[in-house]
Amino acid sequence: MEGTTTRKIGIMGGTFDPIHIGHLILGESAYHQFDLDRVLFMPAGNPPHKKNREGRASLEERIEMVRLAIADNPHFELSLEEAGDKGYTYTRVTLERLHAQHPDTEYYFIMGADSLFDFEQWRDPDQIARLCTLVVSIRDHVSLSRFEAKIEELKQMYQADIRMLLTPNIDIASHTVREWISNSEPARYYLPDAVLRFIEERKLYQI
Predict the structure, then answer these.
(1) Residue 89: C-alpha distances to residues 43, 60, 135, 191 (Å)
(2) Where are any strands of DSSP class E within the chain?
């Protein structure tokens, strides 16, 4: 009997407030570089202790923006695994649940360089490293030597499998996009057209 084929699934997590082209480029680059079967986009829920969300999109609006952004990409998929509203969802818990549901799957957790340098402050980083391959994008403000040294340090500390994502550096953040929209500055081409139309229709971030 032939063995079970292992699937390779990428995970893009975040608040996506709003989702922008940087997120999409990371997901697409990881898909091709690591020969993934799919990339899951996982919007995070609203922790109850973050009450002050003036000028921010609701969970439902953020989910819809992700849905619109990835609609024309057959290997991108919306996942609501972390879209609860009862507080923080932890990466380790999500990965354990996914492995229990899909034991034939390898997970590639896609993150930015900033997250790599914060990784030791995450909950259960050793368990996260056991449950997935970490895929990290390079940022211009971090030297390659410092980046490589941090990867080596975490590999030794957690026996982690960490891979560098070779992708164009789109140095853009969601909070920057929100500021542009709030100040009536153009955000076209930094967001998918459908997402920009949704923001304009809902008058999001206009405070």
Answers:
(1) 11, 17, 20, 26
(2) 7-14, 38-43, 76-78, 105-111, 133-137, 162-165
Q: DSSP 3-state assignment of 96?
A: helix
Tell me what pLDDT residue 85 has.
60
Q: What count of Cα atoms within 13 Å lies in the side-chain half-sphere of residue 27? A: 27
* Residue pLDDT, tens place only, 27-86: 999 999 999 999 999 999 865 445 555 678 999 999 999 999 999 999 999 999 998 766
Distance between CA atoms of 23 and 137, rounded to whole angstroms?
11
Which tens digit of pLDDT belongs to each residue from 133-148? 999 998 767 788 999 9
- pTM confidence score: 0.92
**Residue 139: is it exposed, middle or buried by C-beta count within 10 angstroms (0-12/13-18/19+)?**
middle
Query: Rounded to 10 degrees, what is the CA torsion of 66, 70, 76, 78?
Result: 30
Q: Count of CB atoms within 10 A of residue 38's CB?
A: 18
